[in-house]
């Protein structure tokens, strides 16, 4: 009975996150559609907002509200976890508006959208921490935020992007540490050393870089490599936790 309850809950939760519904948006003037969409955005009614905005976008693709509708859709898709649709809308907007005045915000939203794709519904639901899952979305988000800082250093979103890069850097370093630990458990000593050295080169100011030294000690001991073992122990002494 408990299993059925959890399964039912998951099905309802997944379905409630979808933006598509059977309701048909009335054929009303674009100004009215836009006003309804804005009210929905303000109240956090993301599905309603998306319905109105999608109707505007499809019925009046080159209308007066066209650019703002796409910007609003990017935000609404992100808030409703329609991340693939959000990414597609970002790509479309950039193709049509390569030099838009809100290009920094669009790039920031790309970073947020990619960052959100690193989440797992099941992991969030059961508070499971899986550093060993594929971090490709986080890599993309890191590149997006880095590009934002390079192109728009004075952007209103620069400070938050920088803070998120710190988080993402630790996320990526933790993934590499989990991989190095996997090699240790498989007794693949050389592979573990190579992965630990990668962490120290690419993410030197992370906790994972310090922890990777401990794995290198294990690997060097197993390989009987005394000189690098002593050097690594010295680094550990110089970098206490």
Automatic annotation (TrEMBL):
UniProt keyword annotation of Lipoprotein present: yes
Sorted UniProt keywords: Cell outer membrane, Lipoprotein, Membrane, Palmitate, Signal
Cited InterPro entries: BamD, BamD-like, TPR-like_helical_dom_sf
GO biological process, one term: protein insertion into membrane
Location in or out of the cell: Cell outer membrane
A matching Pfam family: YfiO
Gene Ontology CC, one term: Bam protein complex
Domain Outer membrane lipoprotein BamD-like: 27-234
Membrane topology designation: Lipid-anchor
Complex and partners: Part of the Bam complex.
NCBIfam families per record: OM_YfiO (TIGR03302)
Family classification: Belongs to the BamD family.
Function: Part of the outer membrane protein assembly complex, which is involved in assembly and insertion of beta-barrel proteins into the outer membrane.
Protein name: Outer membrane protein assembly factor BamD
This protein's encoding gene: bamD
